[in-house]
Write a structure and sequence with these properties.
alpha/beta, 6 strands, 12 helices
Length: 268
């Protein structure tokens, strides 16, 4: 490996792109020179991309996608957004394209399910500057998912603490829980609750989500200031296993509806 030993696709999306270009080139039996000819660039450009000395440009990412049927253009956009500290942009794009959403919510109602009042109350805690701007982004993000012509499958498992944690006062919480129940009436939406009686489990260390984009699953872990995109198949599988284990112990849909309704009454 030599000069590419420093690349770590688990820590950097740019490193992941570099490793994937090399892997897919070799899987197709192409030399670096041959790939450069097909892309219409210098051989040195391919070499520098693969060893991480140069970042793949949007133009050449699109060319690779056309040649190989890959998704490098999307990955480059996400990597550029991450560089700007704007992980939200990358997540929004993935959410809008995903055909399936699986979410684990440890403490808060997920953004896609939040009412404007709940979202405003949460954003107003000091977690962002420019509350109105962020609220507008959140509502646009919701519209991109909920107003699609062909709706995606959306499943969320709510930790009991999500229902017990007041955000924005009693009226806001009651309306928020009613909104959850309303969304859950759609045939493509599943809302389930993990009860306090479940005890310790593998979701206690934080929220995460799984997005199916095309034929690939991508994991995303939430964080206070910026999330972490997980694209390596073996790492994504770990989150899939975690979600399955949480699903195994979560209450059924009908029981979960009753739990949410009971929680609503506590905010009367």
């Amino acid at each position: 490996m030599g000069e590419v030993d420093h690349l770590d696709p688990d820590r950097s999306l740019w490193d992941y792109i570099a490793v994937e270009v090399r892997r897919l080139r070799e899987a197709r039996g192409l030399s670096g020179n041959r790939l450069a000819i097909e892309m219409g660039c210098d051989r040195s450009y391919v070499s520098r991309i693969e060893n991480g000395r140069l970042r793949l440009s949007p133009q050449y990412a699109q060319q690779l996608d056309e040649l190989w049927g890959t998704s490098f253009a999307r990955l480059v956009r996400l990597a550029e957004a991450s560089d700007d500290g704007d992980w939200f942009t990358g997540l929004t794009e993935l959410e809008a394209q995903a055909v399936r959403h699986r979410m684990w919510a440890a403490l808060l109602v997920p953004g896609l399910f939040q009412t404007p009042d709940y979202a405003r109350a949460m954003l107003s805690t000091g977690m962002v500057s420019g509350v109105d701007e962020w609220l507008e982004k959140r509502l646009a993000r919701q519209a991109a998912v909920w107003e699609r012509r062909e709706p995606a499958l959306v499943s969320v498992i709510l930790n009991w603490a999500v229902l017990a944690q007041p955000v924005g006062g009693r009226d806001v919480m009651r309306a928020q829980l009613a909104h959850l129940l309303e969304l859950a009436e759609a045939p493509h939406v599943s809302v389930r609750v993990l009860e306090v009686s479940s005890g310790a489990h593998n979701g206690l260390d934080g929220a995460f989500r799984l997005l199916t984009v095309g034929d690939k699953d991508i994991a995303f872990t939430d964080a206070p200031e910026r999330g972490r995109l997980v694209t390596t198949p073996t790492d994504v599988m770990k989150y899939e296993v975690r979600y399955d284990r949480l699903s195994d112990i979560a209450a059924p849909v009908g029981t979960s509806r009753n739990i949410i309704q009971a929680s609503m009454e506590t905010y009367s």
